[in-house]
Give the backbone structure.
Amino acid sequence: MRFGIRDAKTYLNEEGWRQYTINGRKVLIRGAAWMTCDMLLRLDRRRYEALVRYAREANLNMLRSEGFSIRETDEFYDLCDQYGVMVTQQLFGRSIPDEGLAIACVKDTILRIRNHPSLVHFLGHDETFPTPSLDKAYREIIAEYTPERTYQPHSGAFDVKDRFQTGGTRTGTRQLWTYATPSHYYRNKESGAWGFAQSGGIGAVVARMPSMRRMLPERDLWPPWTEAWSFHTVIQGGRYFDAFLKAMEARYGKPAGIEDFVMKAQAMNYESARGMYEAYARNKYSATGITAWKFNTAWPASPTWQFIDWYLMAGGAYYGAKKACEPLHVQYSYDDHSIWVVNSYYREFRDLQVEAQVFDLALRNRAAFKAVVNVGPDGKTRAFFVRWPPDISRTFFLRLKLTDSSGRLLSDNFYWLSTLPEIPAGQGSRGGVFYLDTKSHPDYTALAALPPAQLKVRADFRPEEAEIAGWVTVENPGDRLAFLVELSVLAGDDGEEIAPCYWEDNFFSLLPGESRRLSVRFPAAELRGARPVVSFAAWPEIGRRTNARRSEQ
């Protein structure tokens, strides 16, 4: 018999925000919203296994199961139990006229799922209050059949002052559903990293090129927004994300075509997802958590809200989130340029070495900072502030390293920054299309001129039960920056990309002379008898199969 034991509690803290504890210890919730994994209800173990494992691999610790989708299968809760991913279960989307039917459905659901240790909390309805009679019924059912679990009637307040009535959480804003910059969660208290956001996020997430080519014919890939492209996105159509495209043009330059668009989108998605989760980590426990909108999609879609796309591929947003959620992590703050070490372990770390280096666009080292710090259990420590010379290039880079007293690398991070500040302006709707006006964007357009790095990649694979395990060594022997290195495993030299595929890290950067040795795992069945081959590329070639190279085996 498989079983799990834990003590899960939630309560409202002094500021009225929901706080979670597991086994008596506070937990910062860094999770995402879960949707039905197939709109046509072709529900299978492979998809459930891949999606929940992706969440665990990224150290995302909660999935919010949306109540207006179908009630999830036992496989979903079994896998969340197995991987240690908490579940907040929403009961219904909205109030319905047949309240007797609603009550019967909720009772049936609670009786079916109540013995799963992953289940920790219930939400009533999505962005609305249930009727008084439904709310009363929900509370009575929970009190009778699973009294140790908590409940709140409303998924989250739109106005944060209403959090005391909704249950200690807030929902997102239109800005966060269209495009959120990496600095947003640092600079904006009302919708930033403060309290608990039951919804929120980074806005448009763009699928990688292999997925784009699978879901759309070539003639419909460019320019946006073709009718087919708009069909494969949110119900409002592709123009819902006009703010994302305008921000891309301002920050990275106007895309020359679909491959250029997807490449720049991966960079934007990476920096925004990393910035969002890092802001929550730095601000814990004034910030108690976020379940970002959203984790997965129910059909082929891009741009949309997703960390894992329909084809079970992970892109820049996922790996930015995974980097931010490292259990022992060094990070940069976009608001005051401070460097922090954030510890999610429940033990102390002493004599950690924190190093920061600032490089201009030509990779000249223009500033360096060092400190020795201690960080307590589930703690955070500010190491120092970074500054750069006033004559540095408009686009520049920040490299962070965290090592122990013996020099062993524990965490690293790489940021692209700009001397041009980000100054937000107004937001709203014009003709049914959302807009975000910005007085000033950071300028990363110089990245377009980065020459491709000449990487050397070696791979070694071996079977382990039902999986293939691999070690991939990536070297940058030249004098160029290898920016946003994208790795993938193919089924044979010219085969399709393997998905799901669980990389230790991806979309990382290497300075000249640096190397990384990374682990990767994937189901052996996905090879279909072919030989695994690593495909690799770095900016400005990521996503371009014609330019990608193959590893030595």
